[in-house]
Amino acid sequence: MSNNRAIRWLLSELPGLVKSDVLTDDEAGRLKTHYGPMIESGRNVALLVSSVIGSVLVGAGIILLFAHNWSGLSRWLRTVLAVGPLVAAQAVGVWGICRCKGSTAWRESIAAMIFLLIASSIALVGQTYHIPGDLGSFLIVWMLLALPLVYVLDVSLVCVCYLVGITSWAGYAQETGGHAVLFWLLFLLALPHVWMVYRRDRESPRVALEGWAIAVCLVSAVGVTMEKCLPGLWIIDRSGMFSVFYLVGTYWFRR
Prior knowledge:
Largest sheet: none
Number of helices: 9
Number of strands: 0
């Protein structure tokens, strides 16, 4: 039996235990106070996941709908369709900031949709007006435009996507003969948000999600960015990185 099912069963038994004088009303109330937030937390996580998946599917559906009919549209209509959904999603985001900023599920879902629409707008406008570019320039522009969402809406999913995006850009830049040192500046831009989330509640799932993203991306980026500066030292730099992760974990998460 899962923890949530066990807690629900226990809470459903409380009235009968009080009626049988096994527990007092005060004791039953303390049990409800102790276990009630756990049930709400599980419901909030389920709502968050469902909202994000729904927003991603809606955003992907809009992109596919435009792509299917793209060749038969005029240039001005393409521009409107490329930018219009993004503007509408941002307007909904502004309205939500004023009306329901406290809803994590809402903030994460609208941020995920805007994140996807930023990418589609960049690609569609570039294709319509034949703006030159490659995957590296696309990724860097996308991530820089998406970064304000992390702070304005205080979201973790877009933060994770940003970290993955700049790591992918670093790999592409290094593979095509460029330098990926800019990764470290881009990485530092996300750290204030990670620190704020940690300061609010170090035990929250958001801290775990962003922490794992940082760990995975840093392990990849250290080898990529140091390859040309310190070739052949991948064993040292990665073992040093793992040691840092261990020390940080034991210091920040003592329990």
